[in-house]
Amino acid sequence: MIVVETIEELQQLINKKAGKTVGFVPTMGFLHEGHLSLVKHAIEQNDIVMMSIFVNPAQFGPGEDFESYPRDLDRDITLAEEAGVDFVFIPSVQEMYPFDGGIRILPGPQADELCGASRPGHFDGVLKVVLKLFNIVDPDRSYFGMKDAQQLAIIETFVRDFNLRTKIVRVPIVREDDGLAKSSRNVNLTPEERNQAPIIQQALIKGAELYSNGLKPVQIEKEVANFITGGSVGEIDYVKLLSYPSLQPITSETNEVILAVAVKFSKTRLIDNIIM
């Protein structure tokens, strides 16, 4: 495995692999089984697998956890190599953002729901780094987990509407044995919170059952929120039932829906969802 820190070096290496397909796994590091699942899918479908590790400051707002976001680069490099990654791109902030000419990328109405409603500017920063990485790597396929379902929906729309060459591949959520979605932020949970956190998935399953029984979205959202707060110390940020991937209210023409939740614990905020 080759570790690369500069854009120029990375592109020189990729150019030498002309004629081979490239699968790209963008991450913010502190790797877990969810990230490695993305790598597994990429290996199965491509000749070369490239991973980036970059904690993107552009997607963190004031007071958010950029400085405290968990990092362990040596461990990440070891895990990536063991998983079969060919190249790991680990740029500095200066390498990724040497200039700022004031040009911005603004997401559409999808960004006004779910996490975007309480994190203004977050998805501006996500699209900024994603576009830069896609331009740098020029991957044939790019792999994203379904846990960040809003992010995935916005990136899919971005790639479609702006004719970007890469194909976005959805990868299912990877969970702990007790159902908690894998997340780099899970390490910030207290022992009590960690014991309670699986109630999030249990609430989603309950919500899916209510949906199949024909309950209205507002009733389902209320039942799911009450289930979580009744069995944990977590505070509800949102519970939403929307069409997917448009993230708009459900209509008679909706084919796919998402039930998504965000729950705040003392030091971290967990998200999860179920697609129906």
TrEMBL record:
SUPFAM superfamilies: Nucleotidylyl transferase. GO terms for molecular function: ligase activity. It holds the Pfam family Pantoate_ligase. It catalyses: (R)-pantoate + beta-alanine + ATP = (R)-pantothenate + AMP + diphosphate + H(+). (R)-pantoate binds at residues 59, 151. The active site is at 35 (proton donor). ATP binds at residues 28-35, 145-148, 174, 182-185. Its EC number is 6.3.2.1. Beta-alanine binds at residue 59. Keywords: ATP-binding, Cytoplasm, Ligase, Nucleotide-binding, Pantothenate biosynthesis. It is an enzyme of class 6 (ligase). Its main location: cytoplasm. Homodimer. Belongs to the pantothenate synthetase family. Catalyzes the condensation of pantoate with beta-alanine in an ATP-dependent reaction via a pantoyl-adenylate intermediate. The reaction proceeds by a bi uni uni bi ping pong mechanism. This is Pantothenate synthetase. It comes from Sporosarcina highlanderae.
